[in-house]
């Protein structure tokens, strides 16, 4: 997909251009879409490259904790479902790298930044998957949080990002259902199975809540992203909305959320939750979580193992180009 896109200079439309800025402002004010060839402020482009590439890296690194259970899934059916889910995540990463490339940053550079440990990805994927129930908890909580975050991104002002998110969200809802169903089956199983499901929910709940990012008063870029119609709701708003969804669903599961401070605040009409450990969040984000080193090492290995595929694709593309040029000469 990516190689078909014509390169867009990373400095296209920059530096400042009064007419370009006015056109950009009009598009944003009309809640319409910015496309790759439109002029855009350097900071808008930079914000998008950062956000979209972090999102792409999260999809790709996020394949690892679940892939860990493919060979040990409890049945052929579960294995097939999990494989499809993990492959979907690879596809999400590819759509998103393609969207980032339309802003002028090559995928190769984004990948190199990731494997050099210079890029960020969602901190949640640095936690280990200890039991089969973790696959359920990831689908239910992590993909559930991803949906809450991503549905509003379908309306993001940058066209290629919004369009990629539409396809991604359709698949995320399947992911959440498969996770919920794994937990439901365990919760209705033996007492040990139910305990395994509860234990997984206990471990994934707080990291899932932290996926929405730091609290609003500690999230300096949020305001600008909202002014640019990239983000539509604040971190805390999305987190509260998510807690409300989980409260309803955990009852159906017959499990509990490990948070005795969850309540609906009548006055603000919002869900409240207990305190989260933001120091832990910062530690994991800084590379010191339980699996950070392992995740990056595995990503590096996978990239090196794939070198022959990239070489073959480049050789094939060159051959196609040469053949086309020869045809054109003959014509
Ligand atoms: Fe995904
Ligand atoms: Fe997913």
Describe this structure in words.
With 331 residues, this protein is mostly helical. The chain is built from 13 helices and two strands. The chain has one domain (21-289): Ferritin, core subunit, four-helix bundle (Ferritin). Helices cover 65% and strands 2% of the residues. Strands 1-2 form a two-stranded antiparallel ribbon. A hairpin with a 4-residue loop joins strand 1 and strand 2. Helix 2 (42-61) runs antiparallel to helix 4 (76-101) and helix 7 packs antiparallel against helix 8. It is globular, with a radius of gyration of 22 Å. Residues 1-11 have low confidence and may be disordered. Residues 89, 143, 146, 172, 175 line the site of one fe (ii) ion (FE2).
Each distinct ligand: fe (ii) ion
Q: What is the second-level CATH architecture? A: Up-down Bundle
**Overall mean confidence score, pLDDT:** 93
Q: What is the strand arrangement across the widest sheet?
A: 1-2
Structural category: mainly alpha
What is the top-level CATH class? Mainly Alpha
- The H/E string reads HHHHHHHHHHEEHHH
Q: Helix coverage percent of residues?
A: 55-70%
- pLDDT under 50 segments (min length 5)? 1-11
* Distance linking N and C termini: 28 Å
Gross morphology: globular
Number of strands: 2
- Largest β-sheet summary: 2 strands, antiparallel
How large is the share of residues in beta strands?
under 5%
InterPro entries: Aromatic_CoA_ox/epox, Ferritin-like, Ferritin-like_SF, PaaA, PaaA_PaaC
Pfam families: PaaA_PaaC (PF05138)
EC number: 1.14.13.149
GO molecular function: phenylacetyl-CoA 1,2-epoxidase activity
């Amino acid at each position: 997909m990516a190689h078909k896109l014509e390169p867009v200079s990373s400095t296209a439309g920059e530096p400042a251009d009064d007419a370009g800025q006015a056109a950009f402002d009009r598009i944003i004010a009309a809640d319409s879409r910015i496309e790759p060839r439109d002029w855009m402020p350097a900071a808008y482009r930079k914000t998008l490259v950062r956000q979209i590439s972090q999102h792409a890296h999260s999809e790709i690194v996020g394949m690892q904790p679940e892939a860990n259970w493919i060979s040990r899934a409890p049945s052929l059916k579960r294995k097939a479902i999990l494989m499809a889910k993990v492959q979907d995540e690879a596809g999400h990463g590819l759509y998103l790298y393609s969207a980032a490339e339309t802003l002028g940053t090559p995928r190769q550079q984004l990948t190199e930044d990731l494997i050099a440990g210079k890029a960020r990805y969602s901190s949640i994927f640095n936690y280990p998957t200890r039991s089969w129930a973790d696959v359920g908890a990831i689908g239910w909580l992590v993909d559930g949080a991803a949906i809450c975050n991503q549905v509003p991104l379908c309306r993001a002002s940058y066209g290629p990002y919004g369009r990629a998110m539409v396809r991604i969200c359709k698949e995320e809802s399947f992911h959440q259902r498969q996770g919920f169903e794994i937990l439901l089956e365990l919760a209705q199983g033996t007492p040990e199975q139910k305990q395994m499901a509860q234990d997984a929910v206990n471990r994934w709940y707080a990291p899932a809540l932290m996926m929405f990012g730091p609290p609003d008063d500690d999230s300096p870029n949020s305001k600008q992203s909202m002014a640019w119609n990239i983000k539509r709701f604040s971190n805390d708003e999305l987190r509260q909305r998510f807690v409300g969804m989980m409260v309803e669903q955990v009852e159906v599961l017959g499990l509990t959320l490990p948070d005795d401070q969850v309540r609906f605040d009548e006055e603000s009409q919002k869900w409240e939750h207990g305190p989260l450990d933001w120091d832990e969040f910062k530690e994991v984000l800084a590379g010191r979580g339980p699996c950070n080193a392992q995740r990056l090492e595995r990503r590096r290995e996978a990239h090196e193992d794939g070198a022959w595929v990239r070489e073959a694709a480049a050789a094939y593309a060159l051959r196609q180009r040469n053949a086309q040029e020869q045809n054109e000469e003959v014509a």
